[in-house]
Amino acid sequence: MIRVLLVDDQPLLRSGFRALLDLEDDIEVVAEASDGQEGLALVREHRPDVALIDIQMPVVDGIEATRRIAADPALAGVHVVILTNYGFDEYVFNALRAGAAGFLVKDIVPEDFLHAVRVAARGDALLAPSITRKLIDRYVTQPPRTGAGRGLEELTKREREAVALVAQGLSNEQIADRMTISSLTAKTHVNRAMAKLRARDRAQLVVLAYESGLVVPGAL
């Protein structure tokens, strides 16, 4: 059962999302919150698999809530998905850097919304190649961030190759095809790289790949 927490200051939207989720046999909404501070308390109480968090809220916004969740080792299993009205922008960029697994635009169709919740619960990033490309573009003018390369020396050659492909937005199956290995082996390479780089999920692995200089924008 996938356990979901909803955090949004708009009651009507929360009700709509909950109505969709409640129809699914494999998903359970464990709690709702109307602001980030209340949401953080409920995340700590319920430890959901997925926290759907609005990016702009009173008291504590979605970016700060994501940052606090990502910084708490006890909440390592919580995958944050940011909800936004505007698509990829500066707020979403900062949320991904803070540790969000991805984001959803609020006018998403129901089928895609439900699929996204299940993808996030598996620990996969909600980043289409086009969005990954935008992330890459943001790093073109930014030098590697100090300290972001912690753990790079521990990566094997194959793990580095897998990380570079994750940074292009490829799935495990696509990475397996590119590296001529099984999907299970590709997943193993990615998971080991995430552990060594202390990345919460694939989205953060993409960010770390560029912040550390492991992958250079324009070189792909």
TrEMBL record:
**Which ranges carry the HTH luxR-type domain?**
148-213
Give TM segment ranges: none
List of residues that carry 4-aspartylphosphate: D54
| InterPro entries from the UniProt entry | CheY-like_superfamily, NreC/VraR/RcsB-like_REC, Sig_transdc_resp-reg_C-effctor, Sig_transdc_resp-reg_receiver, Tscrpt_reg_LuxR_C, WalR-like
Domain (Response regulatory) spans: 3-121
Q: What are the entry keywords?
A: DNA-binding, Phosphoprotein, Transcription, Transcription regulation
Question: Per its UniProt record, what CDD domains does this chain match?
Answer: LuxR_C_like (cd06170), REC_NarL-like (cd17535)
In terms of domain of life, where is this protein from? Bacteria
Write the signal peptide boundaries: none
Pfam name, any one = Response_reg
| Identification of the protein by name | Response regulator
- The source organism is Nonomuraea spiralis
